[in-house]
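Quick question: what would this complex look like in 3D?
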Amino acid sequence: MTERLAEIARQFIEAIPHARALRLSLETIGAGEAEIVMPYDARLVGDPATGVIHGGAVSTLMDTCSGAAVMAHASAPAGTATLDLRIDYMRPAAPGKSIRARATCYHVTRSIAFVRAEAHDGEADTPVASATGAFTLERAERPE
Amino acid sequence: MRPRPEPVQVIKERRDAALAKLVGGIPYVAFLGIRFERRGDELTATLPYSDMLIGNPVLPALHGGVTAAFLETTAIIELSWSRLWSEVEAKRIDPQALDATRMPRMPKTIDFTVDYLRSGLPRDAYARARINRSGRRYASVHVEAWQDNRDRLFAQATGHFLMPQAPDG
């Protein structure tokens, strides 16, 4: 189990080109939960007047973190893809601050995983954004 | 007798300058490589394929977050453009005078829901947004994205946006 999770963590950093482009780092993973940090980066600014990170980059952070939580579920999925993702933006992320996302895969069926996630910038108790998503769940082939 | 219309080139240059100023000022749009084409006031967004947009290297497929970001960017630019268009057409704004400090404020995303219909292939993607409701404070926008066939969407999204208020209320 631990080896599998360590492998997932390594793959997230090395194997997803767009996660690398955003310099995402997977901080914790296990038991259907994941935590990923996105450092502040001037290239990701959506509103030059304020320096606030674009919602699209926050969406990518949430989607990546949610997918990691699914992969870390105890049912040991072989793969996952996003079916639907809703993001609520509570407030703008503070310019200059990294954003930390935490996702929980709270329920799985034979073929679907349900996930909740929140993003924080460490500035206030209120999250920057929250997300709910449904993901496909590819079951591993059963060994003979 | 109505006044002679402006030469077509003058009109086109003014509109294209306004669009270029609007899109060019956003670092994240340049980071993803998103471009906008204009036919009259209709915009089509293009996300040219690049290896760094990949989220699943095995398939390979575009990152679901990139798809969400592409759709959200298309929605925000469409909303800003619809406001800017009327200002520029009414000659209340001179696009040549616009710069990073004097752009109209961007709408803020309240919520955004993406429906992933099929995996994003490693090739160019296109998107168009439709403003379903645009009030003084709130707007609702639907966006569709496709790749090879306009009729085979790979993702669609609906979002709500808080519109910037004029400083004088």
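Answer marked as accepted. The helical segments of chain B are 8-24, 27-32, 64-89.
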